[in-house]
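Translate sequence into structure tokens.
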Amino acid sequence: MPLNPRITSWQGQVVWLIGASTGIGRATASRLHAAGAKVIVSARSTATLDAFVREHPGSTAMPLDATDRTAMRDAALQIVEQHGRLDLAVYCAGYYKPMRATAFDLDDALRHEQVNYVGALYMLDAVLPTLLRQRSGHISLVSSVSGYRGLPKALAYGPTKAALINLAESLYLDLTDHGIGVSVVCPGYVETPLTEQNDYRMPGLITADEAAEHITDGWAGGRFENHFPKRFTLWVKLLSHLSEGLYFRAVRRVTGL
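Result follows.
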């Protein structure tokens, strides 16, 4: 049974993606543009966004830093002024550096928090007034299976993704009665500039285009949580339900860490 209204037609839908210069965000923006959506892409890189607009006529670039609260508010106001509404807001901005407690870096850990989580709060602050006034629309947060439970090398990254899952659950409980859909996306390994940093074999690795297809399928199916590829993420979810002792032993055996 779908937990959200199914989004099966994108024609004319006003869609804002924050973190759309590369990877999953860019691939999803491209797919929605091809389906007829009015796509607005935001990220820090003006050049990359301009290249997206050249390749996708009719789309709009709104450069901003996701950690800039004022810039996020201003962009949301501009979108509503131009289009009169907002149908989908997607937070896919992300920052990742492998980190273990034996090489803890506070500044880098806080950078993860600002980009991966606080930026999502800034997006909510910017779009919720419009969505509540409309009594329609959808919020989607891109988390990760790294947010299910603690993992080696994910000391800074994993907690921020866990926070997004919890945030999405709370949003869902608060917003469904107001006609607003909420979903959380939990990919496994996807070929992006972020995962290029990993120095180990990534099981179930898929392309960003494949991830975008899974994401839009999830919206079409009305899913709350959309994790993929299932051949990998189902095993991760199974591991996450083990007792602490079994989980720690299993992760150490699988990762060798």
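Note: The chain is about 45% helix and 10% strand.
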